[in-house]
Every structure is written in structure tokens, then in C-alpha cells.
Amino acid sequence: MPKSPQSHLDPRQPLVVDTTKLPRQPGATRALIRLIPAPEDLGLELISVLPGSDVELDLVLTSVSEGVYVSGRVRGSLSGECGRCLNEISQSFDVPIAELFAYAASTTEETTDEDEVGRMQGDLIDLEPAVRDAVVLTLPTTPLCRPDCPGLCPECGVHLDDLPADHSHEDVDSRWAALRNLTTELPEAASPQERHFKE
After folding, report:
1. pLDDT tens-digit readout, 2-31
2. Euclidean distance between CA atoms 133 and 137, whole angstroms
3. 92, 75 contact by CB (below 8 A)
4. Are the beta carbons of 26 and 64 closer than 8 angstroms?
5. In terms of DSSP bridges, do strands 88-102 and 118-119 run parallel, antiparallel, or are they unpaired?
6. Which end of the chain is more exposed for a tag (fewer CB within 10 A), N or C?
7. Residue 159: DSSP 8-state
8. What is the DSSP string of 176-188?
9. In this predicted structure, what is the pLDDT of residue 150?
10. How much of the chain, in percent, has pLDDT values that exceed 70?
């Protein structure tokens, strides 16, 4: 949910919308199509929108009795790395957005907590929290380069796609490692005894 707006919104900021030209009559609408630079930290640890990259807003602002309802789509590109094989990921996103921004002193503002709905500051709306939620909440915590990515070999770290189907590593229980070493040393250690028995 969007948080309360900053104390002073700057209408020149790319994610601040001035609704002055939207009549405060329920049902009135205004299209908003805008190409903006992505804000910082728009994403998760393994996948995110590169700061400054293009983000397209394709929105409709609708006047309702309690404020302005913002709906539409947010589009852009994601960059990151696969959570299994660490290969680079580059893909597009297209997510829906639907948020109510309440007028100052409206019933909605008085009857809801600050983080339940957005708040307008005069005629200004800060879209950044809503855009951030729309994008980040759809991202996977473990992104994959493809659904069937096999990942890396846990022993040698090579991508399993680059290894033969019968690739394996000898799995020796550490409790038996000392005995394995002993058997490799036995021929030399036992040779004097063998010579003694032969004599």
C-alpha cells in the first residue's frame, strides 16, 4: 500500500502527478501516459529495474467521491541473475496498478490508516509508492533464467547444462576416508612382511 506523501511534493518530479486539469466530478477521467526514469532500489536483491532505465506509465485517472482512482499498467525491463545458475537475466515486465488517493480531509482519509490508501497533497499525487508496490510485489524472490534451469553442480560449480548426463563425483563418507588412504598405502607397508613369508 502506498505510504503518506512527502511533506512537500515537487510537481516537476517524474512520479508526481498534478490533477488540476481533472474535474472533481465523480466519473471524470484523464489519461496519463508518461515515460520516466526508474527510481533507485526498484526491485529485490537478485532482480530489479536498473536505476534510470525507462519505465512506461499507461494510466487512467478517475475522479471518485473520495479522491482520485489511478489504474492502468506499468512497463519496463528487469535485470538480475538466476537464483540457480547465476546466469544473467534480462526480461520485460508489465504489471497492473490500481490505487485510490484520497482528497485531504475526505471521509476516506479520516477513516483509514495512513498506509491503507494514498493521500493527495492538494492536487498532487505521489505515484512512487504505488508504482514501487506494483512492481516489487510481483517479482520472484528466486528468479530463474528458465523454469527448468538445472542450476550448478554442487561439487564442481559447473553449470549442469554444460556437463554430460552421467556427470558425477565420488561420494566418500568422511568417516571412511582414513581407511581409503590406508588401503592405498598397504602394498608398500606390507611388502617387507610379504618378503618374510615368501622366504
Report:
1. 444 445 889 899 999 999 999 999 999 999
2. 6
3. yes
4. yes
5. parallel
6. C
7. B
8. GHHHHHHHHHHHH
9. 83
10. 73
Instruction: Calculate ∠ Cα 141-143-144, nearest 5°.
Output: 150
Name the strand (E) or helix (H) holding 128: helix 128-136
Q: What percent of the chain has pLDDT over 90?
A: 56
Q: Which residue has the cell 497492473?
A: 96
**Residue 67: Cβ within 10 Å count:** 24
**Is the distance from CB of 45 to CB of 81 less than 8 angstroms?**
no
State the chain's mean pLDDT as an integer. Answer: 83
Distance (Å, whole) CA 54 – CA 68: 25
Q: Which residues contact 197 (CB under 8 A, 6 or more apart)?
A: none
**49/139 Cα distance (integer angstroms):** 11
Quick check: helix, strand or coil at residue 106? coil
User: What global pTM score does this model have?
Assistant: 0.72
Contacts of 125 (CB under 8 A, 6+ apart): 5, 16, 17, 19, 68, 70, 101, 118
Residues making up the chain, counted from first to last: 199
Residue position matching grid coordinates 510481483: 138
Whether 140 and 148 have beta carbons less than 8 Å apart is answered as: no
